[in-house]
Specification:
heterodimer, A: about 110 residues, alpha+beta, Glutaredoxin, four-stranded mixed sheet, 4 strands, globular, B: about 80 residues, GMP Synthetase, Chain A, domain 3, 3 helices, 3 strands, about 25% strand
C-alpha cells in the first residue's frame, strides 16, 4: 500500500467515530456480510459513516493491508479495527458491542 | 473453489493443536463455515484469533478461491 492510500484511509477514519468499509452503501449493501454489519449498527442505533470499496480499487486492497485482515466489511471504532461481520454479530449478541460504541460516542 | 478438506488441512498445518470443523454452506466450495478451537487463542482478542486463522488461509483468500468465510474461534474450556 502506498503512502497516499494509507493517508486517505486515515482521513476517512477521522470523519466518524464509527466507520465501516463495505461493499455498497447503507441503503444498498452489495454483499450479505456488509448488510449484516449495517443492520447491526442500525439496530444499536448509533451514527456511522461508510465507504464503498467497490468504488475504489486502491482502497479495496489497501484496507486489507492496513488492518491485516483479508475480508470486507471492516468496522472501525475511533480508528481501531474491531472486526468484520462474524465478530460484530458475536459482540452484538453478548452486549459488548453496544457498550463499546456507547463509550466511544460518549468520550 | 477449494475443498473443505484442503481448508481443514491448511489450518491444521499452521495450528497443530486445533480442533477444526469446516462446513461447505452452498456445496460450491466458496462459502465456508469454519470453527476452530485452539489453546493458541488463549488471551487473544477476537481480531487476533481470526488473524491467526486467516494467516493459515492467506493464499486461498488472496486468490478469492474462498469468497466467504464465516469464522468462529474459541479456546478449549
Amino acid at each position: 500500500m502506498d503512502a497516499t492510500t494509507r493517508q486517505r484511509i486515515e482521513e476517512l477514519l477521522a470523519t466518524s467515530p464509527i466507520f465501516v468499509f463495505m461493499k455498497g452503501n447503507k441503503l444498498m449493501p452489495q454483499c450479505g456480510f456488509s448488510n449484516n454489519v449495517v443492520q447491526i449498527l442500525h439496530s444499536v442505533g448509533v451514527p456511522f459513516e461508510t465507504f464503498d470499496v467497490l468504488s475504489d480499487a486502491e482502497i479495496r486492497q489497501g484496507i486489507k493491508t492496513f488492518s491485516d485482515w483479508p475480508t470486507i466489511p471492516q468496522v472501525y471504532v475511533k480508528g481501531e479495527f474491531i472486526g468484520g461481520s462474524d465478530i460484530l454479530i458475536e459482540m452484538y449478541n453478548s452486549g459488548e458491542l453496544r457498550e463499546k460504541l456507547e463509550v466511544a460516542l460518549a468520550s | 473453489m477449494v475443498h473443505p478438506d484442503q481448508v481443514k488441512a491448511a489450518i491444521s498445518l499452521a495450528m497443530p493443536d486445533a480442533q477444526v470443523e469446516v462446513e461447505d454452506l452452498t456445496g460450491g466450495g466458496d462459502h465456508l463455515q469454519v470453527t476452530v478451537i485452539s489453546a493458541a487463542f488463549d488471551g487473544l482478542t477476537r481480531v487476533k484469533q481470526h488473524q491467526l486463522v486467516y494467516g493459515a488461509l492467506r493464499q486461498e483468500l488472496a486468490s478469492e478461491a474462498i469468497h466467504a468465510l464465516a469464522l468462529q474461534t474459541s479456546s478449549p474450556a
